[in-house]
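seq:
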Amino acid sequence: MKVVHMMRGGAPDKYAMWTDRSYQMINHDFTDLVDYTEEEVKAIDEKGEYIISADEGDIRHANSFIGTYDAIILPKTNLGRVIDYNEFIPKNSRIYQILQMDPIFKYAPFEVVSLDKLKQLIHQNDLGIDIAIKTCTGSGSRGVVLVTEDPEKLKLGGKYVSPTELEDSSIYRDFLKFVEKENCEIMIQELIPFREHQLKKVNIDFVIRDGRLIGYKWTETDPSAVFTNWNWGYHVNTDYTDRIMNHVVSVLKTNGIRDALMNFEAFTNYETETWLVEFNWRYSNSTFEGQAAAVDLISAYLNSDKFEMPKGRTKFSRYWQCGYYKDNKHFVTGK
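struct:
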């Protein structure tokens, strides 16, 4: 039986995660790939075992290795090496610049500024509104501040803050600490017009093997959940989502990616436009949602087994485990 070493294995989405039992999962709490030397990774690789990482910082560590290792489940190039951190991970990297010009899969316009320039713009109240301030490094929500005057967006909480309160806000102070710790560039990007264009927030996990799309799990999230965690949502599988996914994989393949279990976040109207928020170049904490459809994305990666989520739009709940509402005979709905 194959063995998978799950990094950060004590997290709620991983600790007792459902699997299809085609492999054994060993959970390593408070552990990342950076805690392993190349010799330790090589030993795991030689045993035919795997390491699945949940941190993009591990990509930089993998770039320091001399050898190539099937054991590491992070996006890999045609040469079998983990993708180059600087080429893919920063939010102003080449792949994002390419997508700024893409007619199908949009990425909002942005500019890169220094920390001193950002502070000057904010102090002079010249930053603008309906913009996102982001660190260019892979950072998740830690490196994001959303600036708007829209009262409906401000009600959502999370990282939203009004321009008049920005300079003195705890959100901004925490952002500055993170920038100084990471010593990274900053980008100012137009907010995706999700409310004006009636766009839905979506979160997509997908598997690529040998440059082919093995399958994807497209989640339309609970609209009140602005960032990472949501309690319920819909799995969506339509001709439109198929077209977007085939296009995304084509773009990644053209840019040298051969194998991946990864994720992206976006907004879409399911008809004419899909706006990318960002790629997450690693295992996502939404991967386990495949349980509702008895789809194990890790198994699909290990065995190159094609999979498909249910057609249409299917509501699910994801409290520690994940299941469809329609499969709960005791659930009553007014619709």
